[in-house]
Design a protein that fits this description.
Layout (H helix, E strand, L loop, with lengths): L1 E2 L9 H11 L11 H14 L9 H10 L6 H17 L2 H11 L6 E2 L1 H9 L8 H9 L14 H17 L3 H7 L1
Parallel strand pairs: 1-2
Length: 180
């Protein structure tokens, strides 16, 4: 297992932008919960009687990955909601984003952006360019199976979508605060 913790200031702004563009475009603006996405996921699930997509925010994923266990169930979901509320209240957005980028699996046995950056591109996370950041983030749906290098067709396509979303989000004032 590869894991290297890195401070927020030592992460490329490109990777911070890429993860928000891919995982939680409303991250700077919500209180830990994206109620619109939750309602949409619930409606899809109730219509088709199965899980269609997730609606977890970056904050919820940090609550689960740092403080709780994997898997489902109402008990874990309840604890996740409480923990999400608390980390939003106590930590703030920069710390939550820092933790997310340090604890997320980004390849089989590769945890955190510093380990991923060194593993895939042989450089520190601070030096990731936009395309490299988007490629790493493109593996998030299933980092144990999706290859960043050599990139699978999925990674190439998904990275292009992330890059486009990055260009849309970047001018936003709230996003800019998290890129400083």
């Amino acid at each position: 297992m590869k894991r290297d913790y890195v401070d927020f200031k030592d992460m490329s702004a490109n990777v911070r932008l890429a993860v928000m563009a891919s995982e939680d475009q409303l991250f700077p603006d919500h209180n830990g919960f994206d109620m619109t996405s939750i309602k949409q996921a619930w409606m899809e699930r109730s219509k088709k009687h199965k899980r269609i997509r997730g609606a977890s925010t970056i904050s919820q994923q940090v609550a689960k990955n740092v403080f709780l266990w994997q898997g489902g169930g109402w008990l874990r979901k309840g604890l996740e909601a409480y923990t999400t509320f608390m980390i939003e209240l106590i930590w703030g957005k920069k710390r939550i984003l820092e933790m997310y980028l340090n604890v997320s699996e980004m390849g089989k046995g590769v945890f955190g952006i510093e380990a991923a950056s060194r593993f895939y591109f042989n450089k520190s996370a601070k030096k990731l360019n936009r395309t490299e950041a988007a490629m790493i983030v493109a593996c998030f749906p299933n980092p144990k199976k999706i290859r960043v290098k050599p990139p699978s067709p999925y990674v190439n396509q998904r990275a292009q979508q992330i890059l486009l979303q990055m260009s849309y989000l970047e001018p936003d004032e709230d996003i800019q605060e998290l890129l400083k």
